[in-house]
Amino acid sequence: MAGAVPVWTAQKRPRERGGRQEAAVATLGYVRRNPSLLVGSLFLLALLLFVVVGYLTVDPSEASPLSVRSLQPPSADLPFGSDKQGRNLYAVMVVGTPLTLRIGLFAGLLGVGLGASLAFVAGYYGGHVDNVIKAIVDVGLTIPGLLILIIIGMKAREGLSVNQMALVVGALAWLYPARTIRSQVITLKQRGYVQIARLSGMGGPEVIVRELLPNLLPYLGASLVGSVSAAVLASIGLEVLGLGPFEAPTLGMTLYWVNYNAAIVNGWWWWWVPPIVVIAVLFVGLFLVAVGLDEVANPRVRNRV
Amino acid sequence: MKPAVLEVRDLRVHYHTSRGAVRAVDGVGFDVGEEERFGLVGESGSGKSTIALALLRLIRPPGRIEGGRIALDGVDVMGLSEEEMRRARLAKVALVAQGAMNSLNPVLRVNEQIRDALRDHGVRLSARAFEERVGGLLESVGLRREVGGMFPHELSGGMKQRVCIAVAMSLRPKLIIADEPTSALDVVVQWQIMDTLRRVQEELGAAVILIGHDMGLMAQAVDRLGVMYAGKLVEVVAVRDLFRRPLHPYSQLLIGSLTSLDRKSEPRGIPGLPPSLLDPPTGCPFHPRCPYAMDRCRREAPALLEHAPGHLAACHLYPREEVA
Amino acid sequence: MTADYVAKRFGMFLVIVWLAATVNFFLPRIGGQDPVREKLIQQAAIGGNVQAGLEDMVAEYDAKFGLNTPLWRQYVAYVADMARFDFNYSIANYPRRVLDMIGEALPWTVGLLLTTTLFSWVIGGLLGAFLGWPRSPKFLQFLMPPLLALNAIPFFLLGLVLIYVLAFRLRLFPLSGGYTAGSFPALTPAFIGNVLSHSVLPALSIVLVSIGGWALGMRAMIVTTQGEDYVTYADAKGLKGRTIFLRYAVRNALLPQTTALALVLGQLISGAVLVEVIFSYPGIGTVLYKAIRGSDFYLVQGIVFILIVAIGVATFALDLLYPLLDPRISYRRA
Ligand SMILES: Nc1ncnc2c1ncn2[C@@H]1O[C@H](COP(=O)(O)OP(=O)(O)OP(=O)(O)O)[C@@H](O)[C@H]1O
Ligand code: SF4
Ligand SMILES: [Mg+2]
Predict the structure, then answer these.
(1) Domain coordinates of chain C in residue numbers?
(2) How many domains is chain B partitioned into structurally?
(3) Which of A70, A223, B303, C51 could form a disulfide with A86 if both were Cys (CB 3.0 to 4.6 A apart)?
(4) The complex's ipTM?
(5) How many A from CA of B154 to the centre of ligand 3?
(6) What separation in Å is there between the alpha carbon of B238 and the centre of ligand 1?
(7) What is the CATH number of domain C102-293?
C-alpha cells in the first residue's frame, strides 16, 4: 500500500489463541476430521500384528523351498497352503512382508535423507547451486526409474540381494523428495523468524538445522512415507521382472513365482491371494498415512476441504 | 433523503468454526438512498466484507446469514429463489470485490469475461454488437477498446480495477458495492479510480456503498459514513458532521489518529486490540478500549439511536435527551 | 508462445535423450566388468547355425568398446550409435535386429498407453471436477473411498485380480496375449475384434487405477479454485453455475492437471511394462521381460533408450500444448 494512509491497520488482529486444553480438544476433533491418518495407521498396524503373530506361530524356515508338500490348498496345517516349490505360504508371508518393508524403509530413508540434504542446500543457498540441483532433478524425474534400475539389476547375474536391492532403489529415490522439499524450504525461508535468524548472524547450517528442519518435520514425514511406498513399488516391479533376490521370499518374489508358474490360470488361488492382499493393504495404508501427514503439514488444505 | 434503494435491518452473519460461531456481523441496520454514496469504515475484521457479501447472498459455509431483512429496491432479498438471486446479482446490485487484483479469471480475455456476464443475464447480441458494447463499457471507465483483447496478466492493477468497474456497470445496476476498490494501488491511481467510480455512478444514477480503511479517501468520496466496530455499526452520520462532531468514542479516536497523521507524526492507531468475535465482551463491545467506559457499559449494550437529525450513535455517553 | 520458449523446451528434450544414451552406456560398465561382452561370448559359445554372426558381433564389439579403446572413444561411438537408432542385433534372438523387434512391439504399447492414458485423464478429470464442486450431488462423495484405494495400488496388482475374476472365472475375456495364437494378423473386423477383446483387461487395470489418481488431483485443484477470488467474483457477477464450473473452475484446474500429465509419464511407462508382463501382452514390456531373462543387453538398452525418447517426445508435445492453455506461460517461464 505505497503511500496510502493505514489509519487503523497499525494493529492487525492476531489469531485467536486457545489454552492447552482447548488445543487437546481441537486435536481430537481434528483426528476425527482427518480420518486418513487414523485408518492408514490402523492398516499398517494390522500388517505389523500379522507379522508378529506369524513369527510366534510358524517356523520361519518353512519359507524356503522343499519345506512342506508342494501345491497344497489351505488347511489346518498350512493355513495359506503351499507353493509349487514346497514353501509354506503362511511362513512366506510372515517372513516376506518385513523383508519387503525393509527394502522400502531403507531405500525411503536413503532417498529422503539424500533428497532433503540437497533440497536444503539448494533451497537455502539458491543461486547456481540451486540451478544445477534443480536441473538435475527435473531431468532425472522425467526418466522412468524402473528402466534405470533394470539395467543396474541386470549386472547382478544371480539377482540382487535384499540389501543391494534397497541400495539400488534408494539411489534413485531422492529425486522426488528433493523437488518437493526444495519448494517447501524456499517458502519457509521467506518467513519472518527465519529472516530474523539469518540477520542475527546465524550461519547457514545452523539456520537449516535449528529453524528450517524442525518446521519441516511433518512434511519430511509425509515425504518419507511417500518414498517408502515408491521404493516398495519399484522393488516389487524389479522382482516381478525377475531381477530380485531369488533366495528371499519377499512379496515381489512371491508374485514373480506366481507369474512364472502361471498360478492364476492353474487355479492355485491361495498362492497369489495373500501377497496381493498384503501388498494392497500396505499401499493403501501408506497412501492414507501420507495423505494424513500432508494435511498436518499443510493446514491450508485442512481449512479448505 | 431520497427513497431508499437498500434497507438493511438487524442483519446477522455468523461463521461457524470449530471453536464456535464468529459473529462477524451482529445486528446491523442501515439505509442507502437513491444515488447516494454511503461509506462503511472500520478496522480489519470488523465485518465490512461480510456485509458486502451478505447483501448479494454470497456468504459461503462455514458462514451463514442468521437473520435480518434486506430489501433491495423494495424487493425482499432473503425471499428470492437461488435463480432469482443469481439474476439480481450484477443486474440489480453489482460488486467490485476486495482484492480485485485477483478478481479476473487469468485464462480468459477481458472481453470474454464481460461477455460471460452479459450472456448469463440473457443479453443476446451478435458478435459485432457484443464487441461494440464491451468497447463502450471499457471506454466509459477510461480504458482503450483494445484492452478487451488482453489477458489480465497484461494489465496493471489500476487497469484491472477499471475492468471490474466496467463489469459492475454493464447492466446498469441500482446499487454498486465497492469493497476496498483501491487497496494495493498507489495513491495517484487510487484517486483516479475513485474519480472513475464517481463518474460511473453519476452516469448510471446508481447508489454506491464504498467500503474502506482510509478515512481521508472516504471523506472525499462519500456522503454518509457508517462506522463499524466488532460486527456492529457504532455511528452513522453525514461525513461533514462526523468530522465536525464525532459522537462515538471510537470514531473520535479514529479521527484523532487521522489528524495526528496530518502533523506527520507516527500513526498512533488505537490502543488495545479488537475484541474476539467468538466471545465478544459483554455490554458495549468497545468498553475494554474505551477511555470513557462506565459501569453501565460493561453490563448493557448501547442501542444505535438518533441523537441529532440523521446522526446515529451507539453509546451510553449520549442519553437521547441530552443531545437532541 | 515465443521462439525462445520452444527452443528451451527442445533443448530439454535433447538433454533427456542424451542422458538416456549416457545412462545406457555407463550403468552396465560400473564396477569394471563388462557384462555385455561376457554375454556375447557366452552366447557365441553356445554355437549353432548363427555362431558366425555372433562371433562377428564380438569382434565388432571389441573393436568399438574393447579394453584397448579409451573410454571417451567408446562413449562417443556409443552415443553416435544411439543417435542413429543403431541398436545392433538382439543377442538372444540373433539374427533379428533390435530396432525391428522394438518396431514390432511399440505399436502395441503406444496403442494401449495412449488410449488408456487419455481415457483415464479425461474421465478421472471429469469425475474429480464433480467431486470437488460443492453444488454436485452429495452421493458422489461415496466414490471417494474406492477411488482412494484404487489409486494406491499398483496397476499389475489389479491386473492379476482382473485376470482371475473376469478371464479365468467368468471367461469374459481372454487370459493373455494380444490376439489369439495362430490367428493371422490382418486388418479384418474379426482380427480387430480379437485384438480389442485381448486388450480390455490390460487397459482396464491401467484405467481403473489411474482414474483414481486423476480424480483426486482434479478434485483438489477444483477445491483450491473455490478459494480463488475470481471464482467468488464470478458468483458476484451472477454467472450461471455451469459457466463458473466450466470456464472458471475447471478451465483453471486444467493447467496443473496437464503439468501432472507430463510428470507421471515415467511412472506410467514403468507401470505399463509390468501390466504387459502379467498379461503377456505383445508390447515393449513383454519384450523387455524376455530380454531381461535372456540377459539380452542390446535389446534392453534399445528398449530403454526408445522408451525414454518417447517420454521426451511426449513431454515436449505437452510443453508445446501448455501455452495454449495458459496465456501467462510464455511470460512466466521464458
Ligand atoms: N470463512 C470464514 N471463516 C471464519 N471466519 C471468517 C471467515 N471469513 C471471515 N471471517 C471472520 O469474520 C470477521 C469479519 O471478516 P470480514 O472479512 O468481513 O472483515 P473486514 O472488515 O472486511 O476486514 P478487512 O478490512 O480485513 O477486509 C473476521 O473476524 C474474520 O476473521
Ligand atoms: S458505551 Fe461506554 S464503552 Fe461503549 S463507547 Fe460508549 S462510553 Fe465507551
Ligand atoms: Mg474486507
Answers:
(1) 1-92+295-334, 102-293
(2) 1
(3) A70
(4) 0.84
(5) 26
(6) 26
(7) 1.10.3720.10
